[in-house]
Amino acid sequence: MYLKDQMRNTTPNQSVKMLLASGDVRRAGTERLQGVETTHYYRGRVRVADLAARDSGLSARELAGLKRQLDQAGVRTETVDLWIDRRNLLVKKVERADTAQGSLVSTAY
User: Fold this and answer.
1) What whole-number distance in Å separates Cα of residue 71 and Cα of residue 38?
2) Is 95 helix (H, G, I), strand (E, B) or coil?
3) Contacts 24+ apart (CB under 8 A), 67-72
4) Vertex 22, ends 34 and 33: CA angle to 5°?
5) Is 97 exposed, middle or buried (0-12, 13-18, 19+ CB in 10 A)?
6) What's the CA gap between 34 and 31, in Å, rounded?
7) Which of 5, 35, 48, 72 is deepest in the core (most CB within 10 A)?
8) pTM as predicted
9) Cα–Cα distance measured from residue 69 to residue 56, given in angstroms and rounded to the nearest whole number
10) 10-42 pLDDT, tens per residue?
11) β-strand partners of 41
12) 80 beta partners
């Protein structure tokens, strides 16, 4: 159910919001993916319950909406890895989540 909802409702923008909300964005380096030079950004695992306590730069409304979406899906923790090209466009996204139903990994190009 979470994956179906995520595919229907998630945009690359949501992944960036999740990364910002983690409060722990790190640049992992550069990688060549599908013939494109990218910068890899990642964050450590964050508990959904802790999102409101982080200074993410998101508005209270955006943060509340993100937390509500994850709570409804039963997501307890999530990590996000993003690979961004020189034009700041998403090349690859990997999200890993612990949900009430088990673990989930979603990769999109």
Assistant:
1) 32
2) strand
3) 69/5, 69/9, 69/14, 72/5
4) 5
5) buried
6) 10
7) 48
8) 0.67
9) 17
10) 555 666 666 666 667 788 999 999 999 999 988
11) 27, 82
12) 95
Q: How many residues does the chain have?
A: 109
- Which residue has tokens 């993410």? 56
Helix (H) or strand (E) holding 62: helix 60-72
> Tell me, what amino acid is at 21?
A
Question: Which structure tokens are listed for 101?
Answer: 């139903």
Type of residue found at 33: L
In the block, which residue shows the tokens 């722990």?
A: 24
Number of H helices, E strands in the chain: 3, 6
